[in-house]
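BACKBONE GEOMETRY TOKENS:
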Amino acid sequence: MNGYFITGIAAGLLGLAIGAGTTHELDANHYGAQLASEKAAHAADIAKVNAEDAQQLATALSKQQAAEGRVATVEQQFNTEVSNHAKDNLAYQSRLASGAERVRVRVTGCVPPTAADKSTTPAGSVDGRAAYADLDPTIATGIVQVTADDQREIDKLKALQAYIAALQQQGFIAAPTSQ
């Protein structure tokens, strides 16, 4: 083989290597700029998603705090009502037991009092008008206790309804749909 031929092949290979290296360098610069642009766009997207998530979290936290405030108000009202009703009930029962308060009921017929009865209430009306009688204090106190128990349950139901309404207003639970 001729020396010029080998030198020509070596020069050609060197030229190809230099050309490929230059092309690779140019491509790397082009793709590097594109990659940097994509990274910047990706970082902007992540920042936007993070900002939206932070806003949603702040909104949810605000709704939760508002609901907690409403529930605390409902609980305070419930405790106040229960306490007031209990006080009123005990005072009324005390007045019934002492005889300071009486429960009068309308009666359609009465049994005349016996000699051992100390009641001064008339046995009934002879002319057909309604007669009234006082309940025994023990029975009256028992009736008042039953109504107090009922009132406690009514208070609980009202508090539960207010609690549910507070959670519905904040969107934590859905309002019932009518069918």
About this structure: The beta strands are 104-107, 131-134. The chain has two domains: 1-36, 69-110+122-172. The helical segments are 3-98, 137-169. The chain is about 70% helix and 5% strand.
